[in-house]
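Quick one:
INPUT:
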C-alpha cells in the first residue's frame, strides 16, 4: 500500500516546494560545521528533500524507507544517482513491528501478538552498522506508521491507544538513539489535513499557528499526533528526557499535496554529550 501511495505522488516535486524549503532550512540550521553524517527516515520519493544539497553538504547521507523503488527513482529524478555520499537503504522497516501488524490484521484479538507489538514498537532498532549520525531527520513518516495501526486495528479496538502510543514513543526513541552524542534529531510531522479542516487551504501563512491552536483545542488532529502531546512525551520519556531542555518546536507550515493540504510542524532536539 505504501508503495502504491508513493507511486501516485512521485511527481509532487512542485507541489512540495514550500514544504521542502522549510525542511531544508531546518536541516541547514542543524548541520554541523564539519560536514558530518545525516540519516533521513521515511525519505520515500524525496520530494521534501533537496538531494544535491544534502550530497554536497554532508560526508554521508543515508536515505531509509520501506520502499526501495521510491528511493531509486528519487535519485534519478534529482540527478544524483552517482553521488558517492548518498546511501540508499530501501526495504527497511523503521517501526520494528510492520510484519507483526500484518499478522495482526488477520487476528486482531490475538492478545500475545498485541503484547509483543506493544513491547517491540517501543524500542525499534535499525539493522546494519549505520549509527551514530550527526543529524537524524524523520520526514512525515510517523503519521504513516500510526496510519498503519489505524488501518489494522481500527480506533474502537480496546488496545488501539496502547499500540499507537508505543509506535509513537518508539519512533521518537529511534530518532534519539540514532543520533550521536552532541548530534541533533528532527521530527517533522504532519498532524491534520484539509480533509477535516478545509480552512487550512485558505488561511494566511501568518495565521497558521493560530489555526493550529484552534484545531488542537477542537481535537481536530490525526490520531496520536497532537503536537502538544508529542512535545510533552519528548520531555517526559525516560530515554528522551536528557534532551528535554533543548527541544524546539517549529511554527506550523502547509504541505501542499495536490488533493489536500496538511499542517506540518517539527521538533528539534540535541542529544547531550554525556
Ligand atoms: C508521507 S511519505 C514521506 C514523504 C517523503 N519524504 C517524500 O517527500 O515523498 C512516508 C514515507 O514513509 C515510508 N514508510 C511508511 N512506513 C514505513 C516503515 N514502517 N518503515 C520505513 N518507511 C516507512 C513510506 O514508504 C513513505 O515513503
Amino acid at each position: 500500500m505504501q508503495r502504491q501511495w508513493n507511486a501516485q505522488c512521485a511527481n509532487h516535486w512542485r507541489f512540495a516546494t514550500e514544504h521542502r524549503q522549510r525542511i531544508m532550512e531546518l536541516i541547514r540550521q542543524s548541520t554541523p560545521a564539519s560536514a558530518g553524517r545525516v540519516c533521513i527516515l521515511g525519505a520515500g520519493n524525496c520530494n521534501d528533500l533537496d538531494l544535491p544539497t544534502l550530497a554536497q553538504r554532508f560526508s554521508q547521507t543515508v536515505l531509509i524507507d520501506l520502499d526501495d523503488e521510491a528511493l531509486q527513482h528519487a535519485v534519478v529524478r534529482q540527478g544524483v544517482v552517482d553521488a558517492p555520499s548518498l546511501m540508499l537503504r530501501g526495504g527497511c522497516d523503521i517501526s520494528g513491528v510492520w510484519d507483526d501488524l500484518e499478522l495482526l490484521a488477520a487476528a486482531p484479538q490475538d492478545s500475545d501478538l498485541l503484547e509483543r507489538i506493544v513491547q517491540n514498537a517501543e524500542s525499534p532498532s535499525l539493522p546494519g552498522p549505520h549509527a551514530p549520525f550527526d543529524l537524524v531527520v524523520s520526514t512525515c513518516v510517523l503519521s504513516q506508521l500510526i496510519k498503519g495501526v489505524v488501518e489494522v486495528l481500527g480506533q474502537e479496538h480496546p488496545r488501539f491507544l496502547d499500540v499507537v502510543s508505543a509506535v509513537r514513543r518508539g519512533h521518537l526513541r529511534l530518532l534519539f538513539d540514532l543520533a550521536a552524542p552532541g548530534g541533533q534529531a528532527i521530527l517533522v510531522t504532519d498532524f491534520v489535513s484539509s480533509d477535516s479542516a478545509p480552512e487550512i487551504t485558505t488561511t494566511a501563512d501568518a495565521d497558521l499557528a493560530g489555526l493550529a491552536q484552534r484545531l488542537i483545542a477542537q481535537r481536530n488532529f490525526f490520531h496520536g499526533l497532537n503536537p502538544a502531546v508529542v512535545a510533552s512525551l519528548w520531555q517526559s520519556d525516560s530515554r528522551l528526557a536528557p534532551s528535554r531542555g533543548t527541544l524546539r518546536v517549529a511554527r506550523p507550515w502547509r504541505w501542499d499535496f495536490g488533493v489536500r493540504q496538511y499542517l506540518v510542524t517539527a521538533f528539534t532536539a540535541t542529544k547531550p554529550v554525556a
